[in-house]
Design a protein that fits this description.
The structure is a single chain. The chain contains 15 helices and 10 strands. The protein is of the alpha/beta class. The strands form 3 sheets. The chain has a 6-stranded mixed sheet with strand order 7-8-6-4-9-10, sandwiched between helices. A two-stranded antiparallel ribbon has the order 1-2. Strands 3-5 form a two-stranded antiparallel sheet. Strand 1 and strand 2 form a beta hairpin. The mean pLDDT is 89.
Amino acid sequence: TRAFLILGSVVLVITGGEALYADMGHFGRRPIRLAWLFFAMPALLINYFGQSALLLRDSAAAVNPFYALVPSVALYPMIVVATAAAIVASQALISGSFSLTRQAVQIGYCPRVRIIHTSSILEGQIYIPEVNTAIGVGTIALVLAFRDSSNLAAAYGIAVTGTMIITSILFHEVLTKIWKWPEWRAALLTGLFLVVDLAFFGANIIKVGQGGWVPIVAAIGVFTLMTTWRRGRVIVQRVLNESSLPLDLFLKDLQRKDVPRVPGTAVFMTSDVTGAPPVLLHHLKHNKVLHQRVVMMSFQTRGVPTVSRRERLAVQDWGLGFFTVVADYGFAESPELSDLMPDLATRGLELKTHDTSFYLGRETLFATGKSKLARWRKQLFIIMARNAQSATAYFGLPPNRVVELGAQIQL
């Protein structure tokens, strides 16, 4: 039993390895493999062998074997190096948080946030102010609450071992759903990993009361926010779809009516181009006029990191000056209207900013509907929706050419 519980401390020697996965998304497999196999791992082994040798010779060094191994003249320089290493290690957490947040936005599990691209060459180099602020506030709160790094180790052990378990489960999903392995074959491999992961996690369970509850509470909080946003958006989309009209029926009805057409182009942003979006119907109902050219544009997210430029756009001409445009992006990409302009022009659909108006729907939400979502989750969703970044900024639309039409939706 004692040896098993010691695993809760032993696991701390492998923490940091999970950060390589975050960096791998930015730099690729080859740089990470080379840095790990030929630099990081040999250095770690030498260091741990040195600490073990010191403990065998002097058991009193167990108080802090790392610094006990350092000559007294190099103690303060080593503190500087260790502090610098902690700062470097934090970058993997920060960059990983940015990447995961952007992907969560793309697949519909997080409200839109401000994404700043810090490199004109590398797609993955991004900065998200809201996430950066949350990490900063969380870090300060943890330091004030735990006060000592040894107290924080309990929380770190739970967080890392929990991550390892989730990674193994996701790996099983990749094996069976994407690589099409038989269930029994995938279970043998992932089961081997889970034996190790669960052993480490079980050894850390006793530390829940010592601070291990912090990552558990944080995980529950983030999970609640993500699922609430997802379920809320599904309800909103269902309501919008009910107020929509099949595009072919709309065009047939338009042919029977003498609707005035004015010069210029109107772009209606929508999530579903198979029907006339509610914002288009509202515009026609209240203004009783349409532009000479009407474009229904939708940004879609595929289940892949990136989509090649050649496969990104799908343009369809429906006649009567109506077009549908579907722009596909990977979950690791950010949609941007300016990127589409040249490709649209080559497809015969040039959008001149000074001659184009962009129409967006702005929903006012009320927690008085009959959906099965709990009332407190409805209120939470409304708060998240109000604080989400505007579609104008997120899609890079010219602000002075945007028209928003409101609608009231009961959740």
